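Ticket reopened. Same input as before:
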Amino acid sequence: MISKKMKPFVANNSAVRAMFEEGNKLREIYGADKVYDFSLGNPNVPAPKEVNEAIIDLAQHEDPVVLHGYMNNAGFEDVREAIAQSLNKRFGTSFGARNLIMTVGAASGLNILLKAILDPGDEVIAFAPYFVEYGNYVANYDGVVVEVEPDTETFQPNLEAFESKIGPKTKAVIVNTPHNPTGVVYSEETIRRLAAILEKKQEELGTVIYLISDEPYRELAYDGVEVPYLTKYYDNTLVGYSYSKSLSLPGERIGYVVIPDEADGAEELFEAATIANRINGSVNAPSLQQKVIARCLDCTVDLDFYDRNRKTLYEGLQAVGLECIKPQGAFYLFVKSPVPDEKEFVAKAKEYHILLVPGSSFACPGYVRLAYCVSYETIVNSLPAFAELMKNYE
Amino acid sequence: MISKKMKPFVANNSAVRAMFEEGNKLREIYGADKVYDFSLGNPNVPAPKEVNEAIIDLAQHEDPVVLHGYMNNAGFEDVREAIAQSLNKRFGTSFGARNLIMTVGAASGLNILLKAILDPGDEVIAFAPYFVEYGNYVANYDGVVVEVEPDTETFQPNLEAFESKIGPKTKAVIVNTPHNPTGVVYSEETIRRLAAILEKKQEELGTVIYLISDEPYRELAYDGVEVPYLTKYYDNTLVGYSYSKSLSLPGERIGYVVIPDEADGAEELFEAATIANRINGSVNAPSLQQKVIARCLDCTVDLDFYDRNRKTLYEGLQAVGLECIKPQGAFYLFVKSPVPDEKEFVAKAKEYHILLVPGSSFACPGYVRLAYCVSYETIVNSLPAFAELMKNYE
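Engineering reply: fixed in the latest deploy. New output:
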């Protein structure tokens, strides 16, 4: 009954569901506090109080026909202008409402950008490890993901390998910094080199290659590390942003894309992406949440909470002999499996009620991902279980 | 820079924008109260007060991590169950949470259903006149819309023509009742006959043909007319619903689809549509609005407002010699153009500051659409302008 394209998804989904249900079963048998579930990237820190204050104030005082009504498919102009000014102040950019489209989260933002630019067979480069949904988004428009193998020393993008993968069909490159699943923040040096390679290749090939910066974790950076703003390094940069993590609003589906004036064909691209926003069924980003985030531009969730988790888990895992790059952003640790087949390690960990995601899900086998957006107690209580688990590998 | 598929959209969009800007220019020159804009299907009645009350109460009392958080891609289970029970009470159906997927409005609902079922080249039948976006949604998945010519006597679907258009590639039929752009409500007799044809053709062809019922106007029915619930007449009915009009929440993007147990491959289809909801970028319907509508299941906007507009405009247009079917639902009138080329009539009307949409935009030339979701004053004040306009056709 279902389309050929959807068949493999449905087939695969039962595996995902099985994993999820296994977690639930463990919780049922042993109690939720005895299961250390690091598998989900679901923020557990509440939204800053300003969010609910804005919601209440808007519901009390804004004209409901405006607050809940249609607007331009690109979003409320005042909201887009407010975000643009906030970005300009922070990053020295020169955006206006004309450069922003409000979207149903970053997932929808990436989709409308890809729908706007991809013809069937066009290639999109992604650096392994990468978020598995990129492949699905690209396939939505019959594009092809070209993977660049990881640099497992630093988990910065492997730029030598990258250069060799760029060809005449390369339409876009997706990067994500701070990074899921490694927690790495791309250095300014990395970005300068990446931009130089793209400029050179555009020139050589006579094509336009868009750099799509997927930024749901932009505000989640620790140790005072700077997260460079990519449009300043490469003209053909497009940004997909989400408030899911920065304001803990993942269910609300609110984000935006930026198409800078400097991007090739910026106006046409803006129009195409706005139409894509309409016809893919979103129509526009949820209206109330647009108005809410415009009032919360200087807010973020409590980063100290994540930071404490990060340090405690990182140090705890090191102490039991697990290796990983110290993450500077997002809320993930990407840990080297003590055995080559990381799925074996994931299965063994489950015996100790520890739930992990295999690196294969991010095109990077041999590693496992831990999402530390869990309670501090879960982190602390999991460490003895990790110690027990690691006795299998002494 | 943009994809081949998007090029015609961008080209066509400048015409739409030109029309929109022309309206703004008229308003600037003559004043908003001297321009009679019937071109937009944008609700102008505020949401019932229960909506904002629910928003405030939820923001004050619900755990923010739940209220703004991720849930199953199909939506909050309690919300889906509450809607299912409400439908069961109203229509004698037997739905449960297992049959409902919360969506980013009906537009997204139709998209995930079409993504779940369409292979390239599959056909979807639509009865002219029909909402132009159906064509775009079907094209998103490389399907083909097969148009059935209108029955301009009644604007009920032309069932003789329909039967002849069903073939081995027919995967779905989209219907919309109460209907945009005619305001007609499909009679029970129509639906019984339509169902019988589909049953016969499924048997003959050995295929499954889904009837997709697009229901954004379900609650907007007048004169006590009944709007039959289609799943009761044909097992392979799928429903796409939206709260955009019933609760005046078009900007909030909240709706759902129903996949009844009786539909062929219901479970697989439910799973495919839920995955489509995730990978098309929606991920889930906005979380706060899900909780809001679950508290407003017995509310609708003030229908008397639309009803008064309907009667006044219908009678006023008849008085100046314009012909149309008396609409029993939605907030549209579909009026016969006094000249064969309705675009000529639209242009002439503009001279009298009356803004209409040509029937060609709904695959039904020779007619124009008026959306009467405007202020009552606009209706009353427009009538002398219509009288002047009609002097050109005496």
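The longest strand of chain B covers residues 170-175. Chain B has a mean pLDDT of 96. Please confirm and we'll close it.
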